[in-house]
Amino acid sequence: MLSINYQTENIIVDHLPIMVCWSTNYPQKSFSIKVYKGAELVSLIAREGNNTIVTLDAISLQSFTSYTIEVLTHGDNGENNVFRNSFTTSNLGHFSGRWVSGGHHFTNDIHYYRGKRNVVMRKTIYLDEDLLDAYISIVGLGFYKLYINGKEVTRGELNTDWTNYAKIIYYDTYNIKPFINQPKNEVIVELADGWFNPAPLKLFGKYNLRETLTIGEPQVIADIYMRFADREMIIGSDADWQYCEGAYTFNNIYLGERLDMKLFRGDNTTDLLMPDWKNVVLSNGPEGRLVSSFIPKINHTLSLGAEHIHVVDEETFIIDFGAIVTGFIDLSITASENQRVELLYSEDVDENYELNTDSTLAGFVGKQVTEGVIIDGGIGAPARAEQKDAFECRSGKNHFINAFTCHSFRYVQLSGINIEQLNNVQALSVHTVLRENGGFYCSDPYINKLFEVAKRTKLNNIHSVFGDCARERFAYGGDIVALARSQVYQFDSAAIYKKTIFDFINDIRPCGGVTETAPFMGIKTNGVGGETGPLGWQLVLPYLIAIHYRHYGNVNLLAESLPFLEKQILSLEMRDFDDLVTCCLGDWGSRVHDMRNYKNGSPALHFTSACFYYYHLLIIAKICDDLGFKEKWLKYIGKANKIREKILSLYKNTDGSFADRSQTSFVFAIYFDLCDDIESSLNALIDLIKKEQNVITCGIFGQSFAYEIFHRYGHNELILEWLRVEAGFKKMLKNDASTLKEFFGDNLNGSNNHAMFSSYSSWLFQALGGITVAEEAVGADVILISPSFTDTINFVDCWHQTIRGRIECRWRRYKKGIELVIKVPFNLKKCTLKLPKVYQLNKQLPAPIDCDTYHHFYDITDAGEIKVLL
């Protein structure tokens, strides 16, 4: 399979360079790449070597044109392969159309909550000649659905991709020729508020998204391209387009949507009964640069039926779907005219089987957070910012499915109908559809459940950004850092990580600092200043760039990002070191966090903050080295060494420990190689964990680092004990829970659907599964295979699909020994197998290339498949 810009189907390209990659089942000695525009050859390159990731930047792209890339590879023994894939260009971001809207603006906050009908737009096109090609490039802000002649064209849900619309706006391009008829065609765009027209709700009592996001009334910009035998035509959105009021009487990303079934026919909410069409209003639109969307779209993936229905009274019942999903309700009922149905969603119920909506209240609005303190959402806001939907019925069958909001729920309470009126109901999981690029299965069903729980919780919160939970839905840099390793082993994250990097770059503050969330929505708790985020959260930009380069090898992205990283370092250097280390939240989520001091209660706060600063400098130094900038590398590694010395002088205790001697301080000291004696520090850390009955008390960063260091130094049984301890994840997963909670312990102020502690899945891949993409890798070209044969596991099947091919590592215990089967892709720079010396090999491997006290190291580059009995 040939990948183009990390995509394999429905590929739209609007700018250079183009990144192509492939894998062969033999050692490659040479390759050629041809690019065709139709039948015309427009580019040809031929090279020696085994590189399977190539950047194309010498092609002249023409708008609304199809191209084919053909790669021919050759092996040493006469092998060859041909790989082909195609892409289509859009309007290359140059729109002929104008931004158009319905021109409605509410005048004060309270009017928003009273609701208004959404906007539907149309353009009628008459054709009297044969059509050869037809495409549309379109943006609908905030969310949109596109129909042509009554059929939906949009392939995803909750379009458009969320970002800072003042800097960049992602448009979609569709092939619409299959939808076009003769002579009359009606193009319909249904709009909703999305992130572009948010409620004036004061999240946490103070953050009004309308004051920080780029906002406006829902609007559209579009180009419809048509090619005929002797001419081409572009129909852009303009004053000739029309709009009317739609069937949704209210919609909001947090608070839900309200629909009037009596306003439209059938299931198509744009097939309106009495539309009052008027001319649209021309708008200037947001200022962001228009760029073709390149990430996977949000869509339905799985559906859950009702596991239990609890009847409250004649017109109220609660449906339990058995698992928490983030997504839509899909509901069919038989009702009478004007019957009103209300839906209330929750992740949990209390002991009386009443919905407990506290964990999903938007910005805690309506929640009593401390004695006598209830968060107020501002003028006109609901008393409790709950997830709700409602619809007014027509006589007969009514079908309701969410369109412009999604909810996090296991339970939904229906009011206004009796259970006999219910025909069908299911919960639909809706998220950005990331391709799984890793799998894990072992002999322990509980560990397998943990793997699936991590996967489900992560996906539940990805909707074009890496959201945290339904309460906020924001992409926090700290959470992203803590989960980055586990994310890339579990899902193909090349495209969405690239977008996330751009999101944070686009929200860099004038001082050069990085925000706590991207898009930035106002939160800057313990930030460095000038609306920037705390040190550990600012780490998201350099860290994600480094992870992306290691796994996906995009050197252009590395070079493009470096100037922003240098400005970020300058912004950090503007603060005195002693002041700078106070600008962080530290190891967030630690069990030993001092809850009396919410902002500064994390263990070893100043020490961990200093380590984050040190990490900033180490990463930018390595990026400069990767780009061949020796002088810059010397500059930043010199700065890093000075900070290291400062850390040692300020935070190292006389006994060799650091800071407050907490688990977090030991983990950070070991991870950043600050200890004089690693073994004694590890033993001290292990003693601390044992004293806590095998509970790791670290927060999101400390746990992520702990999985790395305990695998690195061979203490994998300790991690298994931690994962299995009753006071840990087992407590999180009581009552048949299928998602992780935000916090360990009582989780009173936390979400029941939060992924920030799911970093353990990287340990499953690297330790039990034995598959590691090495720190020095470029596009996953350096691999270490090092499975841990822990006594309490009898078999493991693990695989990881890298950009260079699939890696498999499987092992099973038999009476005669452990059978180990490894498959690695060809054309890697280096692949090393690390095995404990205590095992004798019943099948001879090549002579070890190296050894340490406990292990032999074998070169298995280009070995293909290996089977060994230990």
From TrEMBL:
Residue ranges of domain Alpha-L-rhamnosidase six-hairpin glycosidase in the record: 436-767
Keyword Hydrolase: yes
Source organism, top-level taxon: Bacteria
MF annotations from Gene Ontology: alpha-L-rhamnosidase activity
Cross-referenced Pfam families: Bac_rhamnosid, Bac_rhamnosid6H, Bac_rhamnosid_C, Bac_rhamnosid_N
Domain annotation Bacterial alpha-L-rhamnosidase N-terminal: ranges: 133-297
GO biological process: carbohydrate metabolic process
Domain Alpha-L-rhamnosidase C-terminal, residue spans: 783-837
Catalysis performed (reactions): Hydrolysis of terminal non-reducing alpha-L-rhamnose residues in alpha-L-rhamnosides
Keywords attached to this entry: Hydrolase
Keyword hit for Ligase: no
Protein name, per record: alpha-L-rhamnosidase
Species of the source: Klebsiella pneumoniae
Phylogenetic classification of the source organism: Bacteria, Pseudomonadati, Pseudomonadota, Gammaproteobacteria, Enterobacterales
